[in-house]
Amino acid sequence: MKTRxxxxxxxxALLTAGLHLFTVLSGTQFxxxxxxxxxxxxxxxxxxxxxxxxxxxxxxGHAGFFAIGGYLSAALTTNDLTPFLAPGLIRWxxxxxxxxHGQDIFGDPLMTVSPWAACLSAVxxxxxxxxxxxxxxxxxxxxxxxxxxxxxxxxxxxxxxASPFFGxxxxxxxxxxxxxxxxxxxxxxxIISGDAAHRVLNYYLAWGVLLLGMALLLNLIDSRAGRALRxxxxxxxxxxxxxxxxxxxxxxxxxxxxxxxxxxxxxxTHFNGGIGPGEASVMKSVRYVALVAVxxxxxxWGTLVMGVGLTFLSLRGVFGxxxxxxxxxxxxxxMLFAPEGVLxxxxxxxxxxxxxxxxx
Amino acid sequence: MNTRTSQQEPMLLLEKVNKQFGGxxxxxxxxxxxxxxxxxxVIGPNGAGKTTLFNLIAGNIPxxxxxxxxxGQEIRGKKSHEIARMGMSRTFQNIKLFHGMTxxxxxxxxxxxxxxxxFLAGMLSLPWTWQEERAIRSRSMELLEMLEIAxxxxxxxxxxxxxxxxxxxxxxxLAAEPDLLLLDEPAAGLxxxxxxxxxxxxxxxxxxGITVLLVEHxxxxxxxxxxxxxxxxxxxxxxxDIPANIQKNAEVIKIYLGEDETV
Lengths: 360, 263
What we know:
The complex is a heterodimer.
Chain A: H1 2-25, H2 31-54, H3 62-78, H4 87-96, E1 99-103, E2 109-113, H5 115-137, H6 142-162, E3 178-181, E4 190-192, H7 199-221, H8 224-234, H9 236-241, H10 246-272, H11 282-295, H12 300-315, H13 323-337, H14 342-352
Antiparallel strand pairs in A: 1-2, 3-4
Helix pairs in contact in A: 1-7, 2-7, 2-10, 2-11, 2-12, 3-5, 3-6, 3-10, 5-10, 8-10, 11-12, 11-13
Chain B: E1 12-21, E2 24-34, E3 39-43, H1 50-57, E4 65-70, E5 73-74, H2 80-85, E6 88-90, H3 103-110, H4 119-124, H5 127-146, H6 162-175, E7 180-184, H7 192-207, E8 211-215, H8 219-225, E9 228-233, E10 236-241, H9 243-248, H10 250-257
Parallel strand pairs in B: 3-8, 3-9, 6-7, 7-8
Antiparallel strand pairs in B: 1-2, 1-4, 4-5, 9-10
Helix pairs in contact in B: 3-5, 3-6, 5-6, 7-8
């Protein structure tokens, strides 16, 4: 089992390098930009996949968590803090090194939060929100849970759309790059940014994050806590009878998947240099659910492959103006014809042997 | 296993337990004790309230009034998983295995209360969890061997035969190393040979030091294995005695063979 996990993760790493090599050989390096974005969206989808496929809890509000992560990162790193905070607090934050001094487009001083601090607070705030709403919302089941999470998504969308602090319908642009490591010696800085100079670096960063996120989830589903999650999927009563605190388990996996979404939102916002309210829209949430379904509910690898693949095609504009239509149709078709997911549905057990998302 | 309770203190004590569902009195003033180390059976015709009683004891539904004391602690207000942690384990009348898991994984879930690796430890696969995981796995495998289904360890539970599923349920319940084991109709749907096997198994479980509370329809099984029997009818306790006396009890005979109920 362990070796199988390692093998499949190695395969993902090789695929990453292989895709890069392919773009170089075919002179299509510009694909790397969409591949980078697709990897971050893939992170959202696998996080949701564990919650939906393994723990059996649906969420049609995950774009909300993605957007909270992205928007908080964007707002904190672009808005001037001076009018919002007490001068004493600003001085203290500055001394701790959490602030960045810059200039806005008119040359006026601009005091913002450093990307590190912004990203950490974005993810933390999202986790807290998930924790707060997770308790009451996850008491609901089936359709009711779907409705409640849908409602949450709509609320988040409307807040971002209405709030001047978050740029209303324009969203937030001019988000700076996120410098992970400063330049050392011959090596340049490690920075998350959409600048063409950092394209290859960012491609590997995004896929690295995806690989790491995948490894953690694969560990989880084979662990004691993972078995607990999977058990409550088929019978909460039986899970409880064996000492599993199902309410707690559900909140844990909800918070975990919210953290995945928020982290993806934050990093992708730095990569894109901005975020708009479309990222919080209900259609985005539906799309994430469709991608989990099409990948196969209980196959993390299927979810990852389909999630990244279809998102890439969508970002390349393959589906044109019918983008949302395509994902809606995919969702319906999968539910009707291949509820086990397209990969397993089409290629059956032969392929499943090579996609060890679920060890049997 | 937890420290065994002294002989004076019962493993399980029910006192004037009532349960109403709306206007229906499902359990009416029922009280009995289960002494440590014995096999107690609850019998009664369909609708007598046997499964309701089990659900009350396991904490799935709250009692309307009365007390249930398990290992010296009242279980009122405790959630099902908390009671499980106090040393109670069970099987279900309608098998409730975890679909999508292998037989082995199902049994491993049974060891939840006997292990402690948390969410983060699992995600990070911390080295100390490996040993625990190995222990869970080997103990679960032993139980599958004991129930003679070790060869099915890697099979998904949904594709097992009915009798095999029952065996996995039993292994899962035993994996928790409970002090009290509730068996809800363990022989339902089994043939005569399998039932005899279950009877042997229940006795073996008692001999392992596990107290057993059993709900069963199969009279021969109940009479064979039980140390004591409680008879329920329409939610009330009609009799409580050793099997030999229950067989002679006029009231009980009337309930089972009475003029009105005879089909």
